[in-house]
Amino acid sequence: MSVWSRFLDLLFPPRCPFCGKIQDAAGVCPECEKTLPWTESGQREQTLPGGTRCVSPLWYEKSAREGILRYKFSGASGAADTLGSLLADCVAECFSGAFDCVTWVPVSRKRIRRRGYDQAYLLAEAACRRWSTRPERLLSKTEDNPAQSGLKGAASRRANVLGVYEAVGLDKIVKRRILLVDDIVTTGSTLAECVRVLRDAGAKDVVCVTLARTRGFADAAT
Q: How far apart are CA 88 and CA 82, in angstroms?
């Protein structure tokens, strides 16, 4: 560890992203490691509307939900490295060899200005560090539509995201197998729309990973 890294650890000591406990090193603390609502091996993979595979290491509840919301809305961007590692582990278990490049579900420019960062990009970037690569920007959000969390019902969520994403860098999409990263999946509407855009732009295949999913996701996605 460099002198600069030690200095930063003194000013901003590593904390567990879920309970906030100060630790000697970055990562999930031993207590949260035991108590987080992990998805079981047979539960990690679900099918999005349209038939796309999606995996998630956590259920979106209890301390996992609290930690993700803090990361997403309360400026806890420093948790991205640990959370991205959870994604990378899940992908290695479920999608090893299934993709050629990594991209993410982007937020609008307005939300980046308000929040200060794109949470899905930071997750993708952290996961890619484990694979000695970088995420590629293949999607752009063209409208600042209402947040999905404020809508009820799968039909409303599907309508809310229809046409708000577009493919960019088409030469990087055609005939490639893409891993698409996001933070949470509920009905799967946002991911399904992004997958549709990538497929229409010529992607050979798309698989998805999120940090967490809701218990009702299996019913909503079928």
A: 10
Look up tokens 């999606």; give the residue: 54
Query: What is the rounded distance in angstroms from the CA atom of residue 74 to the CA atom of residue 55?
Result: 25
Low pLDDT (below 70) residues in the chain? 1-12, 144-162, 216-222
140-181 pLDDT per residue, tens:
998 766 555 554 555 565 666 667 899 998 999 999 999 999
What tokens appear for 172 in the block? Answer: 């990087």
Chain segment 102-116, per-residue pLDDT in tens: 999 999 888 888 889
Q: How is the chain classified by DSSP, letter by letter?
A: --HHHHHHHHHS--B-TTT--B-SSSS--HHHHHHS-BPPGGGSEEE-TTS-EEE-SEESSHHHHHHHHHHHHSS-GGGHHHHHHHHHHHHHHH-TTS-SEEEE-PPPHHHHHHHSS-HHHHHHHHHHHHTT------EEE-S-PPPGGG--SHHHHHHHHTT-EEE--GGGTTT-EEEEEEEEESSSHHHHHHHHHHHHTT-SEEEEEEEEE-TTHHHHH-
